[in-house]
Automatic annotation (TrEMBL):
This is ATP-dependent DNA helicase. Keywords: ATP-binding, DNA-binding, Helicase, Hydrolase, Isomerase, Nucleotide-binding. Residues 10-297 form the UvrD-like helicase ATP-binding domain. Its EC number is 5.6.2.4. GO terms for biological process: DNA replication; recombinational repair; response to radiation. GO terms for molecular function: 3'-5' DNA helicase activity; ATP binding; DNA binding; hydrolase activity. It comes from Haloechinothrix aidingensis. ATP binds at residues 31-38. GO terms for cellular component: cytosol; DNA helicase complex. It comes from the Bacteria. It is an enzyme of class 5 (isomerase). Residues 298-615 form the UvrD-like helicase C-terminal domain.
Length: 796
């Protein structure tokens, strides 16, 4: 009874409570940002467990990123304790991997299948395109990958693609698609889109399998529903069922929550269509709207509404907040991206110094990953603790990929892409000619590449010279020896150490004079650490057992057997890495799910793309690079549909902020390898002027000259047009302080600061790039300025 858990419903509004307690038919919660959709989902799970006697094994919750999954498990954990550990809370991809491993035999897969990420797919497509003699200028791996991905997201397999093809491009894509699938199958590998498509096909082809999961998962819950694509939608429908099955299984209870205004993955095939399909397939569905936003101040919400309301064809929502107007949005026009980063760093420092916000309260957003570098540089120089989320590309670094390729080959010898990657890395005298001979032999004999390699080692490929044959034989022996360690159950970190040792990879880097190789060595050490931590952390068995003991529910108690992969095994590690390395997930030298949530509390500023920020909230948000051509992305200019998506992205960015929002842009920036002068982002200019306080605004006219003195605020709305032509900049005029890097200051010096005006140096510390000064600005109080060279200040 609710009496035992009075708090489960207490802090919910009426509409939220309805959603949490709704019983029976499908439920769709559509509502704007920060209205408590995720809270409803989490609370509903707790309510199911506490009030409706549902067992955690009967719940399947799906989120969009690993980070979101970890947060949800945490939030549910706070409410229901260790029982959350064994619940299926995961991304679509992780869920499918889990299901496919369980059903590998039925699905026609080896249970040790590899997961190919975007880079692996492209490598394979490059091989395929080459072998099919395609014009790779016209059919780039990227184009092919995109086309095939679209088809898979629409659940079109290669036979359908071939029969539907109506022009040359489509026919070529279909041909590549077929060959690509054949090679994937040979390599016992699946790409990301396959994970979903294969699961759907499995469920559609094997009613008894579907029946099992339908019996098992009586509650399916999906967050960020607006970003599911057709394949994912179909997967959900198959799991839930739309009617009573032949053997009498009723459809599961389905609850999806989303916001059409936050649909930001149209490029991945997610469309508003999923909401329409939902209404069509589940006509009896109930829809609940939420209108109160609990996250942001009214100022922030008004800004968000001003931006999103310009999108055509949307259902208008009345989102309101009773948190009050709060602080104005702070606007800043920087001279360059470096100036912008310095401003952001300075503000973060000031907020921290004043106690207004800790580092972990702050997030810095940018449109594309490459924009993080400038921030990272200055944060490092200032000693500002930060972490980059998403696309840190740790797992994309060459040496890391090489090491992982070894592990993948050990886990799955048929993984051709990985095997060919390491064939001659480090160099061992197996050149391209030898590789081609092996590949040719494989093709001719219809063997896998790995089988052909063994044939080569045994001297069964005649057109191979004896030196190459010897080298291949040595390589095969090396792999076998490493493989034995895996067989006897060495943990991942030990296997990895052995790989680095035995292949000579580590020594090669250690002996090199190239400073980059030192970094590579560090990264490998980091990878070993990740593996070590993984092996050690993979023992939640006690907690799981306790949870199982706490509640024994008949046939569902099979979580032990459920873990298809032994915790801490090589395969489990690779699976984690593959899924974590997905574009919208956490990178992670700092580990995976559970660890991340701890990390986020440990006092670091978070840097991330807006895409990654979906679903999250921060007291202080910096939206940077607010320029037409950056955000909205250059690609979207003049494209109505893409512009609408960029606008939704801007809506997502703004609505992450709870109390304070900064929006900045730079007059000039080097982007796409060119100095550019971009006009203000249209999203910036759409925000009503009275909501924004400009710390520094664009100079009037299109000259960038001017002194270091504070500039008079000019009307920013029009200034975009004023200095609007994008293109190369003809020489950046001096603005005084910029050229003064690094400035040498002594006690008693007088300085002029853009924001704080005149001041006197009262103390200095350190030298060079780490020099700091404490300056008395009189009226504005004392201010400690770290890194003298990078603040908007000049010596008088
Ligand atoms: P998004 O669209 O960004 O994913 P959302 O709709 O999922 O947002 P939540 O993240 O669930 O929103 O909630 C936003 C914030 O408001 C959270 O901090 C949450 O704890 C808080 N919140 C939600 N509902 C209530 C409520 N009834 N009372 C107090 N706080 C609430
Ligand atoms: Mg949410």
């Amino acid at each position: 009874s609710t009496a035992d858990h009075p708090d489960l419903l207490a802090d919910l509004n009426d509409a939220q409570r309805d959603a949490v307690t709704h019983t029976g038919g499908p439920l769709l919660v559509v509502a704007g940002a920060g209205s408590g959709k995720t809270r409803v989902l989490t609370r509903r799970i707790a309510y199911l467990l506490a009030e409706r006697g549902v067992h955690q094994g009967q719940i399947m919750a799906i989120t969009f990123t690993n980070k979101a999954a970890a947060e949800m498990r945490d939030r549910v954990g706070e409410l229901v304790g260790v029982r959350s550990n064994t619940m299926w809370v995961s991304t679509f991809h992780s869920m499918c991997v889990r299901l496919l491993r369980r059903e590998a035999k039925t699905a026609g897969l080896g249970s040790n299948f590899s997961i190919y990420d975007a880079d692996d797919s492209k490598r394979l497509l490059t091989l395929v395109a080459r072998d099919l003699d395609l014009n790779t200028k016209r059919y780039t791996p990227r184009t092919l990958a995109g086309q095939i991905s679209n088809l898979k997201n629409e659940l079109v397999d290669h036979t359908d693609a071939a029969s539907k093809a109506s022009n040359e491009l489509e026919r070529t894509v279909a041909e590549v698609y077929a060959e690509y699938q054949r090679r994937l199958q040979l390599a016992n590998a699946l790409d990301f889109d396959d994970l979903i498509m294969r699961t759907v096909h499995l469920l559609q082809a094997f009613p008894e399998v579907t029946e099992y999961y339908r019996r098992r998962f009586r509650h399916v819950l999906v967050d960020e529903y607006q970003d599911t694509n057709h394949a994912q939608y179909t997967l959900v429908r198959e799991l839930v069922g739309t009617g009573t099955s032949p053997s009498g299984v009723e459809p599961a209870e389905l609850c999806v929550v989303g916001d059409a205004d936050q649909s930001i993955y149209a490029f991945r095939g997610a469309t508003i269509r999923n909401i329409e399909e939902f209404e069509r397939d589940f006509p009896e569905a109930r829809t609940i709207m939420l209108e109160q936003n609990y996250r942001s101040t009214q100022t922030i919400l008004s800004a968000a509404n001003a931006v999103i309301s310009r999108n055509p064809n949307r259902r208008d929502k009345r989102l309101w907040s009773d948190l009050g107007a709060g602080d104005s949005i702070v606007g800043y026009v920087a001279d360059s991206e470096h100036d912008e980063a310095a401003f952001v760093a300075g503000e973060i420092d000031a907020l921290a110094d004043s106690g207004e916000a800790g580092y972990s309260d702050v997030a810095v957003f940018y449109r594309t990953n490459n924009q993080s570098r400038v921030f990272e540089e200055i944060f490092i120089r200032l000693g500002l603790p930060y972490r980059v989320v998403g696309g840190v590309r740790f797992y994309e670094r060459r040496e890391v990929r090489d090491a992982l390729a070894y592990l993948r080959v050990l886990a799955n010898p048929e993984d051709t892409v990985s095997l060919r990657r390491i064939l001659n890395v480090p160099k061992r005298g197996i050149g391209e000619r030898a590789e081609a001979a092996v590949a040719h032999h494989a093709e001719r004999e219809r063997l896998s590449f790995s089988a052909a390699l063994r044939a080569a080692a045994d001297g069964r490929i005649p057109d191979l010279n004896s030196r190459a044959q010897r080298n291949i034989a040595a390589f095969v022996t090396l792999l076998d020896e490493l493989g034995e360690r895996v067989e006897r159950g060495d943990d991942v970190a030990d296997v990895l150490e052995a790989v680095l040792e035995r292949t000579g990879y580590r020594d090669g880097l250690a002996e090199s004079d190239d400073p980059q190789d030192a970094t590579r060595l560090d990264n490998l050490t980091e990878l070993v650490t990740v593996a070590r931590e993984f092996a050690e952390s993979a023992v939640p068995a006690e907690a799981a057992e306790a949870a199982e003991a706490a509640e024994a529910v008949d046939e569902l108690d099979e979580e032990g057997e459920e873990q298809a992969l032994p915790a801490g095994s090589l395969a489990a590690f690779l699976e984690r890495v593959s899924l974590v390395a997905d574009a919208d997930s956490l990178p992670a030298p700092d580990g995976g799910d559970a660890e991340d949530t701890e990390q986020s509390d440990s006092g670091m500023v978070t840097l991330m793309t807006v895409h990654t920020a979906k679903g999250l909230e921060y007291p202080v948000v910096f939206g940077t690079g607010m320029e037409d051509g950056i955000f909205p992305h250059m690609r979207a200019l003049g494209e109505e549909a893409e512009l609408a998506e960029e606008r939704r992205l801007a809506y997502v960015a703004v609505t992450r902020a709870q109390r304070r929002l900064y929006l900045s842009r730079a007059l000039t920036r080097t982007a796409w390898g060119q100095p550019m002068s971009n006009p203000a982002s249209r999203f910036l200019t759409e925000i009503p002027g009275e909501l924004v306080e400009w710390r520094r605004s664009a100079p009037s006219g299109d000259s960038f000259g001017g002194s270091g003195a504070p500039r008079a605020a000019t009307t920013w709305a029009g200034s975009g047009q004023g200095s609007g032509q994008s293109g190369p900049v003809r020489g950046t005029a001096s603005t005084g302080w910029k050229d003064a890097v690094p400035m040498k200051l002594d006690v008693g010096d007088r300085v002029s600061h853009d924001k704080y005006g005149l001041g006197t140096v009262v103390a200095t510390e350190g030298t060079g790039p780490r020099a700091t000064a404490t300056i008395d600005f009189g009226a504005s109080g004392q201010l400690k300025l770290m890194l003298i060279g990078s603040v908007p200040m000049s010596k008088l």
